[in-house]
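Because discrete structure vocabularies remain unfamiliar, it helps to consider an illustrative case, giving the amino acid sequence and backbone structure tokens:
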Amino acid sequence: MDNTAHIIGELNKTGQVEVIKKTTSFKGYFQVDSYRFRHTLFAGGMSEEIPREIFERGHAAAVLPFDHKTGEIILIEQFRPGAYAASQDPWLLEVVAGIIEENENPEDLTHREAMEEAGCTLGRLKKIGTFLMTPGGSSETITLFCGEILHHEKKESYGLDHEGEDIRTHTMKAEQGFELLVEGKITNAITAIALQWLELNQTSLTSVWSNETQNA
């Protein structure tokens, strides 16, 4: 067995978690749940009782709009209070993203948010993956896509007024996005993942979407 297969085998071993108590400590726009639990140890046996608070903000989906015909992408810019609280520049360059609502799937959310946040009509979606953002303290996952740009309605700003959104778009060649990442101008993790994925897969994705269009 090679080392990679050994590692995968180890990862596939299922541990056990015993939840002793779970309560909701706070419920507002977001929710915080308090857990007391034990879990199996790598050396065998069970851990001592561990108290933790988990931030519940729902699950999200995100998309990097990409025009395979021109090689252009769309990034959005908006104010983020979490970045401000972390003493970072709070106006972040990001991919389009939003919280998945009840009875909504990630694909539908992606199309809806692309229109709301960027005036962008999407066609085909290529799923990149589903990622835990801060698993040490939050249950949030983000399902990430690369989305085909069919049309971009250009306006000065986008977003929903009742949600306090003030968003503008930046259309650029994909290579410019890669350069922004290298220069440290992209500080949003899921955006960094999306740009790195596209840098690795732009040629193959362009080929697939172009061939599908020709054969349609």
In short: Strands lie at 17-27, 31-39, 50-56, 60-67, 72-79, 91-94, 96-99, 120-132, 141-152, 168-173.
